[in-house]
Amino acid sequence: MFEKDVEIFVQSCKDGAKALELNNDELFKEPNIFTSFIAACRGQEKNYLEITDTAELKKVLEDKLQEYNDNVSSMNLVLF
């Protein structure tokens, strides 16, 4: 059943991409990571943007964790 669900989902994505004239290669490229908090940390409007620089993502996450630990309570998190 799972494989059929994935097949239906992928076909729905392809149909939607075709209707919006999007490239399937872009739609399914890996890694597929989008977030809004990187833009917010850059001082930009909080839009979902593709993450192309994982080092920047790591730095923002570590900075936010440090900010939380300094201002609220210490959390011993491992980010991976």
Q: How many DSSP H or I helices?
A: 4
Order of helices and strands: HHEHEH
Major β-sheet annotation: 2 strands, antiparallel
What is the helix content?
55-70%
Strands in their spatial order, largest beta sheet? 1-2
Which percent range describes the beta-strand content?
A: 5-15%
Task: Describe it.
There is one protein chain. This protein has four helices and two strands. The two termini are 31 Å apart. With 80 residues, the protein is mainly α. Helix content is 56%, strand content 5%. The chain has helices spanning 2-19, 24-27, 37-41, 54-71; strands at residues 34-35, 49-50. It has a domain at 2-52. The chain has a two-stranded antiparallel sheet. The protein is elongated.
Gist of the model:
With 80 residues, the protein is mostly helical. Helix content is 56%, strand content 5%.
Task: Summarize the helices and strands and which ones pair or pack.
Blueprint (H helix, E strand, L loop, with lengths): L1 H18 L4 H4 L6 E2 L1 H5 L7 E2 L3 H18 L9
Antiparallel strand pairs: 1-2
Fill in the keyword field for this structure.
80 residues, mainly alpha, 56% helix
